[in-house]
Design goal:
The protein is mainly β. The chain is built from one helix and seven strands; from the N terminus they run βββαββββ. It has one domain. This is DUF1963 domain-containing protein.
Length: 203
């Protein structure tokens, strides 16, 4: 797929697979009815003037909600990108085992009765960031980290509903992924209709 139309005549480049997730491995409320396969790809180049729903100075994301039964053939070999901005935008092929864990919202959104214990944990660990409650790393669902800014709400551009976190692509030594300054690229989607435009945020 092309990553952009460039008036300078730079050729389009193939997008790179980032994650392929089956509903059977990671069931949850994020799956639309009748869909059992999520594919996430990105262009391995920084885009300084991306489409409105994409993050600045980061790879441009493409998402595909599919039915696994409709995928009757694989594209082999996968096309290699003709150009890429950083080695960290080329994830190393790997497989993962889904682990179901409990995630919590930003500390200031927790019930008041839990905050004293949270302050104790912050003091004990010496970590004042919100990673005390939010699980770090690449994940499907859960809550976003806000260790660089205060929490933000992304309204759906189609219906105005507050969007929820669908997927986090985290910088990681194992996969070779590096986004931003060793940060996270998060994909937010509309909880009422998966066909509405998603929002990408670099944190």
């Amino acid at each position: 797929m092309p990553d952009e139309v460039n008036p300078a005549g730079v050729p389009a480049t193939a997008m790179v697979p980032v994650a392929q997730i089956y509903r059977r491995d990671a069931p949850g409320p994020w799956w639309p009815a009748g869909i059992d396969l999520l594919q996430i790809l990105w262009c391995p180049n920084e885009h300084w003037d991306p489409p409105a729903q994409q993050a600045d100075a980061s790879p441009v994301i493409d998402m595909r909600w599919r039915r696994a039964a409709d995928v009757t053939r694989q594209l082999t070999p996968l096309p290699s990108p003709t150009r890429y901005g950083e080695d960290g935008y080329l994830p190393q092929p790997c497989s993962v085992t889904a682990e179901h864990v409990t995630d919590f919202p930003f500390r200031e959104a927790l019930p008041p009765e839990l905050r004293p214990r949270l302050e104790e944990l912050v003091h004990e660990t010496g970590d004042g960031r919100d990673v005390i409650t939010r699980l770090a790393g690449s994940k499907l669902g859960g809550w976003p980290t806000w260790h660089l800014t205060h929490p933000a709400v992304f309204p759906c551009g189609d219906c105005g509903t507050a969007m929820t976190l669908l997927f986090t692509v985290a910088s990681d030594d194992e996969t070779g992924v590096v986004v931003g300054r060793w940060g996270d690229l998060r994909i937010f989607t509309c909880p009422t209709d998966h066909r509405h435009a998603f929002q990408v945020d670099l944190h």
